[in-house]
Amino acid sequence: MLDCTAMTALCLRFSDDARPDLPLDTGVHALALRDGRLVPVASDDAWLLQICHDRRGIWLVVAPGVRGIHVNGRPVRQLALLRAGDSIHAEGHELLLVAPREHPPLPPPDPIPTGSVHLVLRGIGGDHHGRSVSLEQPRWIGSASGCDLRIEGHGIVPEHARVALRSGQVVLDQTGAEVWLNGEPVRQAVLQSGDQLVFGGRHRFVLEGPPASLQTPVAVTPLPPEPPTPAPAHWTQRVPWLLVAALLLALLLSGLLMFGPR
């Protein structure tokens, strides 16, 4: 297999044979059916589907009039936005969009305070499609009745996996069976915002949240205290001004009386 270890290195995996992964560099990648296989072709040749990689993301474009193209089991007529871990079915063939990466060691069990990281698992396929579950506490996923996310089907065990916070990071661990992360099978991993988890082939979840919240919270330097507001001057401090004003008024009245019309 081609080594696509960077998170930004996306590959297209041909699941039905042993061909090497197709790197999805920036640009348009066209595929056509040739001798019963989906193969890359030039963009000006007749094509079945195209995968476009640009600064906006990864897009699947279906050729006009073509039917039977599915992404994660849902039919696509024209255009679909893809993410790492998606499964594309076309003409009886399955393609996986994968983003392999190196997995660092799991952090030690040093959970951060509850509520300090705002992340959710959002269902995008299966029984929990559209449902979001907060990760402010550990979440068990499996077929057991006590699981936070109860899923059933082929290959699902009672306590299939746990997703929890450790030292400011989201960790997938204690897996009782294989989990697919961005198209790759794993048993444990440190997760990142945008990762897609697949259980049993059809239960799909995406980790959502601001990337900055995946880091250990940074200490905030408090603002310096505001200078105290000076107290209003006491009446005794205003007395000299009152005396001066009274004196000027007396002088003015005396002048008027002395030099005024008689």
From TrEMBL:
Domain of life where this protein originates: Bacteria
Gene3D superfamilies tied to this protein: 2.60.200.20
Keyword Transmembrane: yes
Domain FHA: start-end pairs: 141-200
Segments traversing the membrane: 239-259
InterPro entries membership: FHA_dom, SMAD_FHA_dom_sf
Pfam families assigned to the protein according to its UniProt record, in alphabetical order: FHA (PF00498)
Keywords assigned: Membrane, Transmembrane, Transmembrane helix
Protein's UniProt name: FHA domain-containing protein
